[in-house]
Amino acid sequence: MTNQEIITGLYLELLVVAVILIGILFINNIVLYKQKLKDRISVMLLTSMILGCFEILWASCEEHPDLRALTYIGACGYMILFVIFTVLLNRYILFRFDRLPKSKWATILFYIVPPLIFSVLCITTPWTHWFVSVDEAGVLYEEKLFDVLFTPLMILYVLIAVVSAVRYAIQSRRSDHTTKHIAYNMIVFGVLIPAFYIMEIILLGADSKYLALNLAVSVAMVYLTTNVSTHTLMETRAKVEATEADLRIGTQIQTSMLPLTFPAFPDRPEFDIHASMDPAKEVGGDFYDFFMIDEDHLALVIADVSGKGIPAALFMMSSKIFINDHTTMGGTPAEILERVNKLVCANNDANMFVTVWLGILEISTGRLTTASAGHEYPMLNLNGKYKLFKDEHGLAIGAMGLAKYTDTEIQLKKGDSIFVYTDGVAEATDADNQLFGTDRTLEALNSMPADATQKEILLGVRAAVDAFVKDAPQFDDLTMLGLRYNGPKEIDASEHTQ
Fold first, then answer.
1. Which residues of 388-424 are buried (b: 16+ CB within 10 A; e: fewer)?
2. How does pLDDT run across 346-404, given as a tens digit for each residue?
3. What angle do CA 459, 461, 464 make, to 5 degrees?
4. Domain locations in the chain?
5. Are 462 and 428 in contact (CB under 8 A)?
6. 3-class DSSP state of 106
7. Rounded to the nearest 10 degrees, what angle do helices 3-27 and 40-61 cross at?
8. Which residues sit opposite 399 in a β-bridge?
């Protein structure tokens, strides 16, 4: 085996290892840390990986006469991608150090025009031989214009980034940990290129035709992309972990604000009540509530805040407090919603809104008075079968300060039930984008045994939703509340006496 074959083999092995390492970082960046493809680090990793593939193609095909075209493609692709990489690297470093040019024209002239001109010259070089040429034996030769244009352009972008890193390392004593490490790695990158090239000269001799600056650059680039990507991913991971911790706390706070659902009122045989909430995210915008206003009146609330996540959860908590406070102050459901709506609209800088269904049950008579602020229609079981009850609707809370609401009275008899829910139930979607719908909800309710508890009924509806959507993701919060009226105490007592 000749010296040239040994050097070429080692060179290719280094390149393959470099591409594999960068590919692993790229996949790790996209899959593990959920970074978008358009993020700066992702683009840099992808560019350097493709650049390495072109370099492997160039090195593999050179000196094979029948592969001259592939040698041109590999060399030209490498040169174009290398210039693009140095531009991306330059912009990323200056972005991290807050030194990007502010002028749009400066950006165009410095970052767009030179690579564009260079790319055009590279694409035409197989015919013009301005940059490189491949002889009949398949050997690639660098032309003078290559040394005049390519090397200075590459050095310019890298040098500016290195100088910015040095200035940042010296001047910015109080900066974030990750940016400091990036500055130090950029300085090391700038040192590694000439160091590796000098090492090549020492090992191969100054007049060796096997000297390759791009090998030194490639090795240094693997170091840089590995370290920059690692520190950036560590920064992302720290942010993700902090966010997850905040979400866990938010979930605990939100859950603590919801009343216990089973058994909620063990000493009140007049009714059976149960509720559940399954947020689409760690924290949701739905909420329910039930509480005794006095010894003879039970308040029922279910609501759905616009949006999801932490903003919706914060708006949910404030809305829940407003509704609870104004309900205990007295008034009909319509009057309560009007007061709450005015209060929310007066302090609604986020322009959010919440649909609310509010009911007040007079336990001694079974009279249920309700009002709806744009919420889903309830489902009533008055004659042994659940049916959709279309009550009067007003605007959602927070939509308009002058909104009016209407009371609706429902007379419950012993054994009657009501089921209220948020749109996450009826709008649960399967893999084919089919909705669960109100008909399937009614079917699930009516399939339950007549003596089923409210907890069993809600679990049955949830099981029907899960069976419908199967493995499709949950896009909306899913909240349900069920109440069965068992009649007043005196009726139960008389029946027991008989």
1. ebebebbbbbbbeeebebebbebebeeebbbbbbbbb
2. 887 778 899 999 999 999 999 999 999 999 999 999 988 999 999 988 999 998 888 99
3. 110
4. 3-249, 259-497
5. no
6. helix
7. 160
8. none
- H or E, element range at 154: helix 151-171
Query: Can you tell me the distance from the alpha carbon of 248 to that of 416, in angstroms, rounded to the nearest whole number?
Result: 38
Give the pair of three-digit tokens for residue 153. Answer: 């352009």
Q: 115-157: per-residue pLDDT in tens?
A: 899 899 989 999 998 888 898 888 888 888 887 887 788 888 8
**CA-CA distance, 312 to 17, in Å (whole number)?**
48
Can you give 174-203 as a three-state secondary structure string?
CCCHHHHHHHHHHHHHHHHHHHHHHHHHHH
Distance (Å, whole) CA 146 – CA 142 = 6
Q: Would you call 184 exposed, middle or buried from its count of C-beta atoms within 10 A (0-12, 13-18, 19+)?
A: middle
Could you give the C-alpha distances from 331 to 175, 301, 325, 336, 371, in angstroms and in order? Answer: 57, 15, 12, 6, 12
Distance in angstroms (rounded) separating the CA atoms of residues 4 and 204: 11
Sheet holding 417-421, edge to edge: 271-278, 478-485, 417-421, 379-381, 386-388
The amino acid occupying position 276 is S
Instruction: Report residue 345 as tokens.
Output: 């609209």
Residue linked to tokens 């942010």: 239
Distances in whole angstroms, Cα of residue 230 to Cα of each of 193, 224, 236, 495: 21, 10, 10, 74
The kind and range of the H/E element at 289 are: strand 286-294
Q: pLDDT per residue over 39-56, tens digit each? A: 777 888 888 888 888 988
Check: CB of residue 282 under 8 Å from CB of residue 253.
Answer: no
d(CA 452, CA 119): 74
Q: Which tokens in the block code for residue 402?
A: 């002058």
- Check if the beta carbon of residue 370 is closer than 8 Å to that of residue 378: yes
φ/ψ of 470, rounded to 5, equals 55, -120
What three-state secondary structure class fits 5?
A: helix
Computed on alpha carbons and rounded to an integer, the radius of gyration of the chain in Å comes to 35
Distance CA 374, CA 368 (A): 19
Q: What is the pLDDT of residue 462?
A: 93
> CATH says 259-497 is which class?
alpha beta
Q: Are 482 and 421 within 8 A, CB to CB?
A: no
The domain defined by 3-249 folds into: Rhopdopsin 7-helix transmembrane proteins (1.20.1070)
Rounded distance, CA 212 to CA 307, Å? Answer: 57
pLDDT in tens, 62-118: 888 899 999 899 889 988 988 888 888 888 888 877 888 888 888 898 889 988 998
Alpha helices in 172-308 (DSSP H): 177-204, 213-257
Q: 366, 358, 185: which is closest to 271 by C-alpha?
A: 366
Measured in degrees and rounded to the nearest 5, phi and psi for residue 486 equal -100, 0
* Residues 42 and 50 sit within 8 Å (Cβ to Cβ): no
